[in-house]
Design goal:
- The chain is built from 4 helices and 12 strands, in the order E-H-E-H-E-E-E-E-E-E-H-E-H-E-E-E.
- Helix content is 20%, strand content 42%.
- The longest helix is centred in the middle third of the chain and has 15 residues, at 132-146.
- Strand 7 and strand 8 (118-126) form a beta hairpin.
- It is of the alpha+beta class.
- The mean pLDDT is 94.
- The strands form 2 sheets. Strands 1, 2, 3, 4, 5, 11 and 12 form a 7-stranded mixed beta sheet that branches. A 5-stranded mixed beta sheet has the order 6-7-8-9-10.
- The N and C termini lie close together (5 Å).
- The chain has helices at 20-32, 50-58, 132-146, 168-176; strands spanning 2-10, 36-44, 61-65, 70-72, 75-85, 89-97, 106-115, 118-126, 154-160, 194-200, 204-211, 220-227.
């Protein structure tokens, strides 16, 4: 049996006590030794990059795409989608939704993870918070893109979906064949907004937990995926 520790975490850009909370988070991330860390709202500017800073000690493989570029607190910055991976990873593609429209611009990253002889399709996304209909359109576009990758036996879908488990956009993913294990709140408002969903032809079991509370308005969601 092999284990893969996958985490997803919305880091809330440069809000609250920034960057001090990121400095404090760095050691905690290092001690947890996630195999994969998918980040949303990863603040990036010429002066400071949260994802790159967290990767200093980890020294993991790094993929990041810029989204939602604008001036924040007087500094031109982006709110990136980032993947840090202990194992080899390759960018396959990226989708942008409503590019250039500040409030509703979002994206998805598609990558190929090579893990102990297994090739896994890994997706990281952050969907719009304003409209369920908008999120449904984004989910449909992601599923259409997934259909292009038929050679993967396992798909891991991470991200902040800005949707409760009962919402249509989450149900759409479940209807496609994705499942998830988490039942704990992932946001300080005591709701579930963050997900690690999986779809696999392999025999797997999953342990789920929520941790790293207090570093963002979101909590970190961890899945330990056991390949049997």
């Amino acid at each position: 049996m092999t284990k893969l520790k996958v985490a997803t975490f919305n880091l809330d850009k440069d809000n609250d006590i920034f960057p001090d909370r990121i400095y404090n988070l760095s050691n905690v991330i290092y001690k947890n030794r996630f195999d994969i860390l998918c980040l949303q709202e990863d603040y990036n500017s010429k002066k400071f990059s949260t994802g790159k800073f967290l990767n200093i000690e980890l020294n993991y493989n790094y993929i990041s795409i810029k989204t939602r570029e604008k001036f924040r607190n007087g500094i031109n910055s982006s709110s990136n989608l980032t993947i840090l991976s202990k194992y080899p990873i390759k960018l396959l593609d990226k989708l942008f939704f409503n590019k250039g429209k500040e409030d509703i611009e979002r994206a998805a990253v598609f990558s190929q993870l090579s893990f102990k002889g297994k090739e896994i399709l890994l997706i990281n996304t952050h969907l719009c918070h304003l409209s369920s209909n908008n999120r449904i359109e984004q989910i449909r576009a992601i599923l259409k893109k997934i259909n292009e990758y038929k050679n993967f036996n396992t798909i891991i879908f991470c991200g902040d979906l800005n949707a409760l488990p009962s919402y249509s956009e989450v149900k759409l993913l479940k209807e496609y064949g994705f499942s998830d294990k988490n039942s704990e709140f992932t946001h300080e408002s005591k709701v579930i907004l963050d997900y690690i969903l999986n779809k696999s032809k392999r025999d797997i079991s999953i342990e789920s937990k929520v941790l790293l509370k207090g570093f963002s308005d979101h909590h970190c969601l961890l899945n330990i995926i056991n390949f049997l």
